[in-house]
Amino acid sequence: MPKDHGIGASSKRREDVRFLTGEGNYTDDINVNGQAYVYFLRSDIAHGTLNSVDTSAADGMEGVVKIFTGADFEAVGSVPCGWQVTDKHGEVMQEPRHPVLAHGKVRHVGEPIAAVVAETLEQARDAAEAIVLDITHLPAVVDMKEAVKEGAPKVHDDLTSNLCYDWGFVEENKAAVDAAFEEAHHVTTLELVNNRLVANPMEPRVAVGDFARGTGDHTLYTTSQNPHVIRLLMGAFVLGIPEHKLRVVAPDVGGGFGTKIFHYQEEAFVTYAAKVCNRAVKWTSSRSEAFMSDAHGRDHVTKIQLALDKDNNFTALRTDTYANMGAYLSTFAPSVPTWLHGTLMAGNYKTPLIYVNVKAVFTNTVPVDAYRGAGRPEATYQLERLVDKAAHELKVDPIKLRRQNFIMEFPYATPVAVEYDTGDYVATMDKLEEMADIAGFKKRREDSEAKGKLRGFGVNCYIEACGIAPSNLVGQLGARAGLFESCTVRVNATGGLVVMTGSHSHGQGHETSFAQVVADMIGIPEDMVEIVHGDTANTPMGMGTYGSRSLAVGGSAMVKATEKIIAKATKIASHLLEASEGDVELKDGAFTVAGTDKSVAWGDVTLAAYVPHNYPLEEIEPGLEETAFYDPSNFTYPSGAYACEVELDPETGQVTVERFSAADDFGNIVNPMIVTGQVHGGLAQGIGQALLENCAYDSDGQLLSASYMDYAMPRASDLPFYDVDHSCQTPCTHNPLGVKGCGEAGAIGSPPAVVNAVLDAMRSGGKDVGHIDMPVSPHRVWEAMNS
Amino acid sequence: MYNFDVEMPTSIADAVKALGREEAQPMSGGQTLIPTLKARLAAPSVLVSLHSIPEMKGVCKNDAGDICIGGATTHATVAAEAVDYPALASLAARIGDPAVRNRGTIGGSVANNDPSACYPAGVLGSGATIVTNNREIAADDYFLGMFETALEEGEIVTEVKFPIPEVAHYEKHLQPASRFPLVAVFVAKFADGVRVAITGASENGVFRWTEAENALSGNFSASALDGLSLSGDKMISDLHGSGKYRAHLCGVMAKRAVAAAS
Amino acid sequence: MTQLKMTVNGKAASGEVEGRTLLVQFLRENLGMTGTHVGCDTSQCGACVVHVNGEAVKSCTMLAVEANGAEVATIEGQAAPDGTLNTIQQAFQDHHGLQCGFCTPGMVMSAAALLKDNPKPTVDDVRHYLDGNICRCTGYHNIVKAIMAASGQDVSAIAAE
Question: What is the predicted ipTM?
C-alpha cells in the first residue's frame, strides 16, 4: 500500500492552494511605496565600438528621475564569474570584465547600454528613445570555429583571442586513448550540434531594489534560485555592500531551470540605483527582453569517437567540443562544458579510456550558462547518439550493445575522475523494455504504415551527477564557492516547527516534501512543519537550488539539524520521564521509556524547552533550535533508461512522439507524485529540445528566435502522456536519506531517445542518414529524407 | 506602448468619422495590433475600436445564398455560427487559440493581410467579396501583397460575403512557434470551377494556385495534382522552412485539402 | 484618462486609466489583483487569461477601456468565499497539475472556459484547447489529467502519480 503521510507518501502540495487562488507572491507582485521604474536601452547590434551615449535630450523629459550609462559604473565591480577553469597547459582561463552597463564596446544584441529610471515605465521608455548612441559597427563573431581562427574579430580586445580555455580531460590519458584508437577493431565517429536553448521559465525575471537611507540597509527582491549566492556575488564583488547590510529576497519564483541561478546586471543595477536615487527601483523583464538577456543554454559543437574491439566492447572514447560562452562569462558558465560534462562521458559504460577536449569560445551572443541538466545533457546526447550509431554500423541491437558494456559493479571509478556509488543499469533497462512494450512495436509500426506514416523506436541510457560536491573538491576544480547546504530547525513551544532551509523552491514543492521528511522523523502530522526559504534575512547561508541538489544536499542538512533537535529533545524527555537517555525513544510523536508504558508527548517536551521549570538547566540550555551545514562527500548518480516511439509523416517531415517511457533510479523517494512531475517536466523540455526549440542567430549576430513567434515552446498538443517509473531504487550510500535527485533527469535522458527514434523511422522508410541535428524540425526531416 | 486616445463608436458612420482624426487607426480584435503597439512599432494618436458596432457583428445569409459575416465578428462566432459553410467554420475554429478566437475578428484579419494568416486563404479561396464602408471589392482584387490590401486610408471592412461552394477544405501545416500556418491551402469546388488559395508560403502573401485550379476543375481528386509543383523562388525562407520546403508543402497540403473535401 | 467601471468577480470595481492601459494592468496595478500574470508580449503564453462577459480572453491583449461595463472573472474569484477550491482548482491540486504556479491562473481560467463549452472533452480536445497556454514545468501530463478529472471523467488509465 502506498503510504499516506511522511517519507514515501504522495502528499498533496500545500503551496498549490495559494498558486491556485491567485495568492502567490511573485517578485512582480511586490511593489514598494514610491518606487520608480527602470527601462534598459539595449544594444540592437551584436558588436560595435560605443563612441558615445548622449542623454542630453532625454535627461529633462517628463518623469525622468535619472539616466545611467556605463560611465556611472566604471568604479563599480565587474559582474563576477563563479568558476575558474584551468586549461590543459595549466593556464587559467581568460576572463573578461563584465560591466553592469556597456562601456567602450557592445558585445551582443541585448547588452544594456543605458538605464533610464523614471516615474513610470512608459516614461522611462520614452526617454530611452531620446538617447543618442554613436556606435561604430564591428564585424560580429557568431560561429565558434570561425571565432578561434587566427585574425578573427575579437570580442574582447584585451584578451589574446576568443578562446576562453582549451581544456583537456584527463590530459594524462590522451596518449593511451589515441593508442587504443590505433588498435581498435571498429571506430564510430559522429559530429553533432547540441542546439542553443532559452530556458524560458514562464515568469520573466524581475528585480526590485530598495534602500533605507536611515539605516543604510539595502534590499533586493529578485527572481532567483539562490538568494544567498546573489547576496554574496553582488554584495562582495560588484557593489561592495557587506552582507549584513544587504537582504536578498527571492519569494515565489515562477520556474528557473538554471537561468535564475546567475547574478545578472539588472539586479546590481536596481540595488545601486535605489541608493543613488534614494527610492526603490523596479525592473520587470518583458519576454522579448528575456530572450536577449537571460543566459542561454547548451550550444556545443562536438566530434566524438568510440573505439570498439572485435567483440563490440567499448575500448576508448574521445571527444572534441566547442562550447559557446557567449560574449561574457555568466556565473557558472565555465564549469558547464568541463566539470559538469567531461566527468559524465563514461555514461553507463565501462569504457576504460576516455579523453575529452573542450574549447570554450567567446562570441557576440548572449552569455551561455547552465540550463536544466547543464553539461550532462550534452554528454548524454553525444554518447547515446554515438552508441546507437555504432550499433547500426555493427548491425547489432542497440539495447544489446548497451547491456554488453554496462558497468555492473559498484562503486565504480570511471576514467573521468568520478566514482559512482550505486546503480543498477540492468534493472532500469529491464524495466524499460517491459514498459515500452517492445513486442508490440511491430504491430504499431504496421498500423502507422497503413496510414502512410513511418514509425521509429529509440532508446538511450543516462547517468547524471547531482548534488555537486564536496566543497573542498570543487574548490580544487575552480569553483569560487562552497557547495554545502544549510538548515535551521526552530521548534516552537507548542510543538510546531519552522524549518529554514538554504534550498529554494521555484516549483519543486519543497514546502511539502521537506515537511514530509521532518514530520516523519518526529512522527507528527506534516502540517506541524512549516518550510521557510528564499529570504537571506530568515534562512541560514545556503547555496540554493540547482543541479537536482535540494533533497540530496539541502534535505541532508535538514535531516542533520532535525537529528540534533531530536537528540536534545530526547535529553529533555529523559529528564521529564526520569529515565536514562539511552532508554528513551521517539516514536509517533511521543518519547517512551523502552519496555514501559511511560511516555511524554512531543508537545510536552517542546513546552518544557521554553518553560524550563522542570528542566536540566545545569546540563542543557533552554530552547529548541538547531542549525546544520551539510557538505556531501560525493555527487549522487541517478541513472535510467528511456525509450521513445515516434511517428513520422514522410510527406511533411512532421514528427510526433507517440509513446515515451522513462525508467529512472533516483534512489529513495520522498514524494512519488512530485518526483513523477519533475520527470514529466524534464521530458517535455528534452522533447522540446529534440523536436522544437532552437535559439538561432544570423551571421551578423542578430537573434532570429527572439520571441515566442519564432522560438517554439512545447504546447500540450505537441506532447504525449508519459509512462514514468521509479521503482528501481539503489539508494545513495553517502547521504542520510539515500536520495539522488530527480529534477534534471527527464531533460538529460530524453533527447537522444527521440533522435534515435526519428532515425529509426527514417531507416524504415529506406533512408539511412546516419545523423540529424536537433531540433528535428519537419523542414530538416524532409530535407534529410530528400537529400 | 505610446499613449493614444481610444474611441469606441457604435455605428459604422461614427467609426468612419472617428477615423478622420489625425493619426487615427482602426482596431478590431487587436490580437495583432496590440502586440505591435507593445513593441512600439505603431504610434497612432487615436485608436478607433470597431468592437462595439452591432451592425458589424454576426453571421447571416443573404438572398443570393451567400454567408455574410460582419467585419467585427470574432473567429469564435464564425466557428460556431457559419454552419452552412463548414470549411469556413473549421478554418475559424483553428485560428490561433481559444482566447485569441474570442477577440480576433475576420475584418481585422482581412484588413491586416498577414502573409501567414488563415482568413486570407479562406476569403480568396472562396472568391468572397470584401464589403467596406463605401464599396465592395472582389477578393481577387483585394489582396495586393504582404500586409497590403486595396483598402484606402480610413476604409474599414464591414462585412465579408462568401459564396458557398459544393465542397471545400482548409488544410494547414503549422509553424511550430507562432502556430500560424507555415503553409496552408484552402480548396473550394464550385459548380463552375475550383479555387485554390495558399497562405504562409509566398513573399507576396496569399495567392491562387491557378495551375492546380485548372487541374482540379477537370478532375477534383488529389491525384489530379500529381506532377504539379510550385517554384520555391518567391516563397518565404526563414528559420522554419526554406522556400523550397514551403513550395513542396503547398502540393502536399493542396492534395490533403482535396482529399478531405471530396 | 478615462474613468472605468466594471464588475470583477461579482464586485464593482472602478479606476482611471489611459487609453493604452491593458486590462491586465488595470487588474494588477489599479485593483492590486496580482493573481493574473504576464508571461509574454506576443499573446501566446496565456498566463493572463481571464473571462470577460463569460469568454476567455488574454487580458494582456485587450485594452482596459474595452472592458468598461463588462463582467470580468479572474483567478481570485474561482474558489468559494470560504476558500474552498472549485472543482478545477481541486483537480489541479489532486493531480499535481502545477509546479511553479506562474501559468496556473491562466490554465485554470482556460480550463473553466473549456468545460463550460465542452463538459466532457476528449484528451485531444483538452490538449488543443490549451494551444494558447504555455506551461514550462509540468510537461502538461498532469494538467491534461486534472482537466479530464475535473470534467468528471475517469482518469485512472492515465499513468498514475
Answer: 0.98
